[in-house]
Write a structure and sequence with these properties.
- With 634 residues, the protein is an alpha+beta fold.
- It folds into 4 domains: 59 residues, Beta-grasp domain (Ubiquitin-like (UB roll)), CATH 3.10.20.30; 176 residues, Threonyl-tRNA Synthetase, Chain A, domain 2 (2-Layer Sandwich), CATH 3.30.980.10; 219 residues, BirA Bifunctional Protein, domain 2 (2-Layer Sandwich); 92 residues, Anticodon-binding domain (Rossmann fold).
- It has an 8-stranded mixed sheet.
- Strand 26 and strand 27 form a beta hairpin.
- The radius of gyration is 31 Å and the shape is globular.
- The model has no long low-confidence stretch (mean pLDDT 92).
- The chain binds one RNA strand of 76 nucleotides through strand 14, strand 15, helix 8, strand 23 and strand 27.
Length: 634
RNA sequence: GCUCAAGUAGCUCAGUCGGUAGAGCACAUCCUUGGUAAGGAUGAGGUCACCGGUUCAAAUCCGGUCUUGAGCUCCA
């Protein structure tokens, strides 16, 4: 009997008898066999040693594929657990998966792992890798597995075992003296793990539930070569330089002070200027797209929050009530009740719809102290909020316009990559099934029509409606939600919203709640990280710094400044009696886009010398040429 | 909120064994007036996060509080 093995490039190989995946890889090329980590046989990830005994499709995974990386890191996690068990035999192992960037393993141990501990573990892992221990798969019965792990006193493994479905095969993987319960597959031997770095240790709850015991987690990463590891560590260093908290301090954009309170942002003049520019652009874009701007108060009576339901379902995120002439008031965690009250302040004909009410509305939410993070997670923030109230037959058109509008706005700030998520109806939800269906379909249809890739988060919608979220990545690849487009079947009911239809009857409108930037704070942070502090010219708080070479050119510099200010450019003069090199260095460190150097030569001829941040000297030119050069970039 | 780590001048950080603080940058004044990433001198600047304890003596040791960081969890 012979069998055919089809490869991803479309070629086929014939074998007279059953053969291991590794053998096939070796036949293709010894280099592939060396780099091979796992085999995907008819779509199923398997060990390289797996024997193929019938016609199959085979993909050999190396570190170049996502699947290969995942498996490699997972195997490294096992190796780390082995090292930890050797160093501290009393520690119990729990779980250790691969993550987007590397792996972690959670251990039950009293003390936290210190940096010295991590060092020791890393050393031991290197020794274990040098021993080139093969990873063996073994399948066994549930009873055998339970008995074995009980003998090893690995109670967490027994808990995991008890939750594995009856019909699933139970397997363990062994390398050297270490056995772990694992579905696999794994790399063939520890020698493949060449470069390991344990990055940090921290606490993590068993099963992510804060009612459970706090375990000690170690994060790490590994690569087939030291070069790749070095590159990765380099990337982390570069990312740290782009951290918005660091840039915020270096460029004097904002601060958060103990005295003012955690999660409350102070915007310094430079940061405030950037924010102002973002907001001005935002308002203009909204006015041009059929929105009406509104303003609403920061506090509202308890009645309002009872009507909206926030006191019921959102109370733990709201600050406690304040007493105003024996009436209870709450500071707002959301803007919706106000916008809906504005809508309800008058009667509406179907002819007026859609009504689009927009506000840069500052809200305050109680966030647990541990989650606060720079500008990304704060307690007081400004949502670029809007509520679209429309008739059922306007829904699809509105959704489509919204998606285009949102992406256009994000793109105009320089963003190019987005992750789009569609979240559907959760278990507990309000509203009619037909409404959910209609809303979800219009979200999906719009995404498809616009040819956008998106992932579906089944059951991930809010209880009041389905939604689309658009996320942007920060410097180290963490995704942060910016845009959110949410249907709301709850509030129109609660506020008894109406419009009068063509039939002269009152109808319930649809309501879409949306934020494009998400919050100004978070958006500002991602913007800063995305550009590494080198903001596009139109957003730079100071667009040009004029640098006179000696004090003798101060007057000329001031003249130039007023001419540039008249042209609408944000321009300053560095009038300190310092050398030109010093002033340039200073302006470069402040990431000011344009520097204008004027010495005796320029003053005499009425010219100027331009220098562009990140590019260097652009040479001397007359005023009109320089202005054209700058305006071209705006 | 929980686990671990940290908090010293505006910023970045030293500070040994407990003996009431130091550098560089930034800032101010003076000298220097210079051509594309740091010229020189002098000076000012600190309740060592806060509160309490141990001690003859606390930045240092202990306890508590606040804040920050990495995670868990949660979300714009």
């Amino acid at each position: 009997m012979s069998l055919k093995i089809s490869l991803p490039d479309g070629s086929k190989r014939e074998y007279p008898a059953a053969v291991s995946a590794l053998q096939v890889a070796t036949d293709i090329s010894p280099r592939l066999a060396d780099a091979a980590l796992a085999a995907e046989i008819n779509g199923k990830m398997s060990d390289l040693s797996t024997i193929i005994d019938s016609d199959s499709e085979l993909i050999i995974h190396t570190f170049k594929t996502d699947e290969g990386k995942e498996l490699y890191w997972h195997s490294t996690a096992h190796l780390m657990a082995q090292a930890v068990k050797q160093l501290w035999p009393d520690v119990q192992v729990t779980i250790g998966p691969a993550i987007e960037q590397g792996f972690y393993y959670d251990f039950d141990r009293e003390e936290a792992f210190s940096d010295e501990d991590l060092q020791k573990i890393e050393e031991r892992m290197k020794e274990l890798s040098a021993q080139d221990l093969p990873y063996y798969r073994k399948e066994l019965s549930r009873a055998e597995a339970i008995e074995m792990f009980r003998g090893m006193n690995e109670m967490y493994k027994i808990e995991i075992l008890s939750e594995i479905p009856e019909d699933q095969v139970i397997s363990t993987y062994t390398q050297g003296d270490f056995i772990d319960l694992c579905r696999g597959p794994h790399i063939s031997s520890s020698g493949k793990i060449k470069a390991v770095k344990l990055l940090k240790s921290s606490g993590a709850y068993w099963r992510g539930d804060e009612k459970n015991k706090m375990l000690k987690r170690i994060y790490g990463i590994s690569f087939p070569t030291n070069k790749e590891l070095k590159e990765y560590l380099n990337f982390l260093e570069e990312a740290a330089k782009r951290d918005h908290r660091k840039l915020g301090k270096d460029l004097d954009l904002f601060s958060i002070s103990d005295e003012v309170g955690a999660g409350l942002v102070l915007w310094h003049p430079n940061g405030a200027m950037i924010r102002h520019l973002i907001e001005a652009y935002w308002k203009d874009a909204h006015l041009r797209n059929g929105y009406k701007l509104v303003y609403s108060p920061h506090v509202g009576r308890s009645n309002l929050w009872e009507t909206s339901g926030h006191l019921g379902f959102y109370k733990e995120n709201m600050y406690s009530k304040m007493d105003v002439e024996s009436q209870d008031y709450y500071i707002k965690p959301m803007n919706c009740p106000f916008h809906l009250s504005i809508y309800n302040a008058s009667h509406h004909s179907y002819r007026e719809l859609p009504v689009r009410l927009a506000e840069l509305g500052t809200v305050y939410r109680y966030e647990r102290s541990g989650v606060l993070h720079g500008l990304m997670r704060v307690r007081g923030f400004t949502q670029d909020d809007a509520h679209i109230i429309c008739t059922p037959d306007q829904v699809s058109n509105e959704v489509e316009k919204l998606i285009v509008f949102s992406l256009d706005m994000l793109k105009s700030f320089g963003f190019k990559e987005f992750m789009i998520y569609l979240s559907t109806k959760p278990e507990a939800a309000v509203g009619e099934d037909a409404d959910w269906e209609m809303a979800t379909q219009s979200l999906k249809a719009s995404l498809n029509k616009l040819n956008l890739d998106f992932s579906v988060d089944e059951g991930g919608g809010a209880f009041y409606g389905p939604k689309i979220d658009i996320k942007i990545k920060d410097a180290i690849g963490r995704a942060w939600q910016c845009t959110t487009i949410q249907f709301d079947f709850n509030l129109p009911e609660r506020f008894d919203m109406q419009y009068i239809g063509a039939d002269n009857q009152a109808h319930r409108p649809y309501m879409i709640h949306r934020a494009v930037l998400g919050s100004v704070e978070r958006f500002f942070a991602t913007l800063l990280e995305y550009h590494g502090g080198n903001l596009p010219l139109w957003l730079a708080p100071v667009q040009m710094m004029i640098l006179p070479i000696t004090d003798a050119q101060l007057d000329y510099a001031k003249d130039l400044q007023s001419k540039l200010l008249e042209e609408g450019l944000r321009c300053e003069v560095d009038s300190r009696s310092e050398k030109i090199g010093y002033k340039i260095r200073d302006a470069e460190l402040k990431k000011i886009p344009f520097m204008c150097i004027v010495g005796k030569r320029e003053a005499d001829e009425g010219s100027l010398t331009l220098r562009r941040h990140t590019q260097g000297d652009l040479g001397s030119m007359d005023f009109a040429t320089a202005l054209a050069r700058i305006k071209h970039e705006l």
